[in-house]
Write a structure and sequence with these properties.
alpha/beta, about 45% helix, two-stranded antiparallel ribbon, about 375 residues, 8-stranded parallel beta sheet, (S)-mandelate dehydrogenase, single chain, globular, flavoprotein, TIM Barrel, oxidoreductase, FMN-dep_DH, 12 strands
Length: about 375
């Protein structure tokens, strides 16, 4: 990987490695996909205002979230179907996160089960919950609790699935459908195809062993449809089910943040689901400072992080740590475990260098005075 110097380099390698159908699943957004560029470009609307003559001979990236210390202000965001990108992708990400000293979040739609990842080694694990049905959600919570997951992340921006046109055009589905175009694309990407043939079609392991109690729960499980009736009362009930740290992901309004805090939520993740839901949704960075100022609980951010400088901007505007989604999946696709570790190294080096040039020797010294919205944006 001597020619890899940035997340964009990993992105181009991933594009070459993956069949179009799979790369489009990883890369795509909803509807016209204007949100994809908006998430990334939002960081360019902010300029740094460095302090000078500060002692930055030693820069520490250590941070604290909810009473626990971490070596870096990153976490691995929940992403589904990672086994389609690389066999055993969830385990690779979890182990790389543990090695780096950062949390790994397992998606409900993972290809390894809650229990598989719990048994895969050390490291802090969080579980991300989609609510298909209340009974199923409660069972998932119990399994994650029994398996030792330290936090639960409830995703609230998917009452219905986004309209993802790339996946529709590609007839993307699991199990896969094999037309001539799909087979030809596989032949053009032999390394991925060999992996796929060896490992087989990825399964949604969290659902394979799940026993849905009633007919409604069974129907929800079969259709993979979200519970669109999940509301504030349901959140309060979930708070009662889960005794450990509870985070809510997908908040973009200050009043929703305040209500979450009132419900006993421990932290919030400002996110628009990587622009994969409603295409016209505001970029999380645009509302980060407003939300951070509205509550006294920690704020995390994901969606659009491609550089250490993006993380630096987010931390200055009020985020405690930031999530890595597509950035780290590009590396997983292109180079597996070595790629993920290298990607984390690149982002860490970029962040550390950026802090030194900004005049901050620790995460605690980052604040809104170090950034200013550009007049040219």
């Amino acid at each position: 990987m001597k020619d890899v110097f940035s997340v964009e380099d990993f992105r181009m390698r991933a594009k070459n490695f993956l069949p179009k159908m799979v790369f489009d699943y990883l890369e795509g957004g909803s509807e016209g996909e204007s949100g994809l560029s908006r998430n990334v470009n939002a960081f360019g609307k902010w300029n740094f205002v460095p302090r000078r003559l500060a002692d930055v001979s030693k820069c520490s990236l250590e941070t604290t979230l909810l009473g626990r210390g971490y070596s870096l202000p990153f976490y691995v965001s929940p992403t589904g179907l990672n086994g389609l990108i690389r066999p055993d992708g969830d385990r690779i990400l979890a182990q790389a996160a543990a090695k780096a000293g950062i949390p790994f979040v397992l998606s409900t739609a993972s290809n390894l089960s809650i229990e598989d990842i719990a048994a895969s080694g050390d490291g802090e694990r969080w579980f991300q919950l989609y609510v298909l049905h209340r009974d199923i959600a409660k069972t998932m919570c119990q399994r994650a609790l029994t398996a030792g997951y330290e936090a639960l992340i409830l995703t609230v921006d998917v009452p219905v699935n986004g309209y993802r046109e790339r996946d529709m055009r590609n007839r993307f589905a699991l199990p896969a459908t094999y037309g001539l175009r799909t087979l030809a694309d596989g032949l053009m990407h032999p390394r991925w195809s060999i992996n796929f043939l060896r490992s087989g079609t990825p399964k949604l392991r969290n659902f394979e062993t799940l026993e849905a109690q009633g007919p409604e729960a069974q129907a929800a499980l079969l259709k993979r449809q979200m519970d669109a009736s999940f509301d504030w009362d349901a959140l309060r009930q979930l708070r009662e089910w889960w005794p450990k740290k509870l985070m809510v992901k997908g908040v973009l309004r200050a009043e929703d943040a305040v209500q979450c805090a009132a419900c006993g939520v421990d932290a919030l993740i400002v996110s628009n689901h990587g622009a994969r839901q409603l295409d016209g949704t505001i970029s999380p960075l645009e509302v980060l400072a407003e939300i951070a100022a509205s509550v006294q609980i920690p704020i995390l951010l994901d969606s659009g992080i491609r550089r250490g400088a993006d993380a630096l901007t987010s931390l200055c505007l009020g985020a405690t740590i930031v999530g890595l989604g597509r950035a780290i999946l590009y590396a997983l696709a292109s180079d597996g475990e070595r790629g993920v570790e290298r990607c984390l190294e690149i982002l860490t080096d970029e962040l550390k260098r950026g802090m030194a040039l900004l005049g901050a020797s620790s995460i605690t010294q980052l604040d809104h005075t170090l950034v200013r919205r550009s007049n040219w944006a």
